[in-house]
Amino acid sequence: MDEPYHIGFVADETPDTRALYEACLHAGLTTTHDGRTDVVAKYNIGTERHQDQDPEAVVAALERADNGSLYCWTESGMRLRVGFTHATTEREERWGRTSLGFQTSEIDRSHHDETVVAARIQELIDVVEAFVPIVDPEYVWSAVYMEGVVPETVMPDGRPVPDHVDELPWLTIMSERVIEQFGGRGRVLETPAWRVTEFDSGHVMLVLEDHPYEPTDSLADDCEAHLLTG
Fold first, then answer.
1. Which ranges in 99-165 belong to alpha helices (H)?
2. What is the arithmetic mean of pLDDT over 63-73?
3. Among candidates 227, 216, 223, 167, which has minimal Cα distance to 193?
4. Any bridge partners for residue 81, and if so which?
5. What's CA 7's distance to the chain center, in Å?
6. Alpha-carbon distance 100 to 6, whole Å?
7. Which residue from 142, 134, 215, 200 is spatially nearest to 173, judged by alpha carbons?
8. Cα-Cα-Cα-Cα dihedral sign, residues 86, 92, 94, 96
């Protein structure tokens, strides 16, 4: 499988670009595939592609842009796209002011050893966690999307969120307000997910299974039954 995977951070404001960049470095990401941080191998301003630039110049350019993206690599060699937009449309708001993207082949068990896949999923979760205090998301959703098709089943198009999603995404983060929409903190924390994490900010992250589309144990149905029914 080799399709784009999107993690969208729905938030009221677009976070500071430099803060996102520094969070990437703090999480152990590099800006080249061979582990360097003294040059940015690839980044985009809008739809214009750029490469091999000084990091300070890249951050300055991204700070001036309405939208852009920066490519980073994890310690295990997984390539991530960190995107941001100063949303001006409802679709951009729903898609997320901040995003993390990657190709599913990066974590495909038919391409990589299980230890590599597990390491990359943990690295991805670590970056998501690093973004939470900077982005302050209302809701975070995630999904495979093919040929630019928006995954309507997991991306809320209204509030309260539980009334506007048909499925729980593999990785979900809820703000305190959204937690109440799902029945309160106690109920959310009791979700039978693979991983449940509370943040100092009051957010809760649910990672339903140990893999976005090839889980060892199928837990998504139980999680959805717990939070989306009754």
1. 114-135
2. 97
3. 223
4. 71, 101
5. 3
6. 6
7. 142
8. negative
182, 8, 178, 27: which is closest to 91 by C-alpha?
8
Q: In what order do the strands lie in the sheet with 195-198?
A: 48-53, 40-45, 67-73, 79-85, 98-103, 4-10, 139-144, 171-174, 204-207, 195-198
Among 177, 197, 190, smallest CA distance to 226 is for: 190
What is the residue type of 44?
Answer: N
**DSSP-H helix ranges across the chain:** 17-26, 55-64, 90-95, 114-135, 176-181, 185-189, 220-228
- Output the six-digit token pair for 11: 């938030």
User: How many angstroms separate the CA atoms of 176 and 138, rounded?
Assistant: 8
pLDDT in tens, 187-203: 999 999 999 999 999 99
Extract the tokens encoding 175. Answer: 């703000």
> Is 0.90 surpassed by the pTM of this model?
yes
